[in-house]
């Protein structure tokens, strides 16, 4: 799989404030990559550096093997971009706006624009200035997807959208992946990233704190376990396991968090009769929050 995005020690400082701190990252062709982090973590800074809207303090960013600071016009023809604050001239009608942007792209079949607008329930005859935030976001989505770019860079793409349109957006991302397009998507909506992303990167204070597939992140995360024994709960045995934390025993029921391999717990439970065993797999939101509760930034794993 060839690389579409490569970041090498990418650093951006704003005076005394650091936006990115030596970021290393690669995203492959046809991959959907979810980029997660709270406001101020460095997500939008990363995207602006990729698009050469701002320049790095150190390091470099490459798209399709080319430094982002070179051949910018050539690179941008291959990119569909939705900024986090999509704005266009308010007096235009939606149709005029999209026709103009399509012409700048070298032309887009009108049927493609109409189809996207129909799926997103976007009124092409409305004036931009009269649109709600959600409907303006729909315009942004149409202009990003309409020319079928090799790379989609989407900054908070579902901001303001209702749940039904969010599902349509996820369908568009899945279709883009099937067509071999690459999607780099920053988001606060963790469920949508979990639904479509091949890998996720979590950024905190300009540094990656996690980088892996959702499944592999789950495997390394703590699981919530509830055990109901037939008879008294084995509190002493459970407490002695190094993988067990947050143990609470209430009569015959024990609740705990399990980190790492379940092998020792399973061997312990094999010596008891159980009425019920429930293991809750962490979702992406729990993984995300767990990383942000830690005080120290952990080194990102490399895929």
Automatic annotation (TrEMBL):
Q: Name a single GO cellular component.
A: plasma membrane
What CDD domains does the record tag this protein with? ABC_DR_subfamily_A
The residue ranges of the ABC transporter domain are 5-230
Where does it primarily localize?
A: membrane
- SMART domains assigned to the protein according to its UniProt record, in alphabetical order: AAA (SM00382)
Q: Which GO terms describe its biological process?
A: response to antibiotic
Localization per Swiss-Prot or TrEMBL: Cell membrane
Which Pfam families does this UniProt record tie to the protein?
Answer: ABC_tran
Can you provide one Gene Ontology molecular function annotated for this UniProt record? Answer: ATP binding
Keywords assigned by UniProt, alphabetized: Antibiotic resistance, ATP-binding, Nucleotide-binding, Transport
Q: How does it sit in the membrane?
A: Peripheral membrane protein
> Record's superkingdom?
Bacteria
**InterPro entries on file:** AAA+_ATPase, ABC_transporter-like_ATP-bd, ABC_transporter-like_CS, ABC_transporter_ATP-binding, P-loop_NTPase
Question: Into which family does the record put it?
Answer: Belongs to the ABC transporter superfamily.
User: Which named protein is this?
Assistant: ABC-2 type transport system ATP-binding protein
């Amino acid at each position: 799989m060839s690389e579409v995005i490569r970041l090498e020690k990418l650093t951006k400082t704003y005076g005394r404030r650091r936006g990115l701190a030596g970021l290393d990252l690669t995203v492959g062709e046809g991959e959907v990559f979810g980029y997660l982090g709270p406001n101020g973590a460095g997500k939008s800074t990363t995207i602006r550096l990729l698009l050469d809207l701002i320049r790095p303090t150190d390091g470099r960013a490459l798209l399709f093997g080319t430094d982002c600071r070179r051949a910018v016009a050539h690179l941008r023809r291959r990119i569909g971009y939705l900024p986090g604050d999509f704005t266009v001239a308010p007096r235009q009608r939606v149709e005029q706006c999209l026709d103009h942007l399509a012409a700048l792209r070298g032309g887009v079949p009108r049927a493609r624009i109409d189809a996207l607008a129909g799926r997103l329930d976007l009124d092409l005859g409305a004036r931009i200035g009269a649109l709600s935030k959600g409907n303006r976001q729909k315009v942004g989505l149409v202009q990003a997807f309409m020319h079928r770019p090799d790379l989609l860079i989407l900054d908070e793409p579902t901001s303001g959208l209702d749940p039904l349109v969010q599902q349509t957006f996820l369908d568009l991302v899945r279709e883009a992946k099937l067509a071999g397009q690459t999607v780099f998507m920053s988001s606060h909506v963790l469920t949508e990233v979990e639904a479509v992303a091949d890998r996720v990167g979590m950024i905190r204070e300009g540094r990656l704190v996690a980088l892996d597939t959702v499944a592999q992140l789950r495997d390394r995360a703590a699981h919530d376990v509830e055990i109901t024994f037939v008879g008294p709960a084995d509190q002493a045995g459970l407490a002695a396991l190094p993988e067990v934390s947050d143990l609470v025993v209430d009569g015959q029921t024990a609740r705990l968090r399990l980190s790492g391999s379940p092998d020792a717990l399973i061997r312990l439970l094999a010596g008891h009769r159980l009425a019920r065993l429930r293991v809750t797999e962490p979702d992406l939101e729990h993984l995300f929050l767990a990383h942000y509760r830690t005080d120290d930034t952990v080194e990102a794993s490399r895929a």
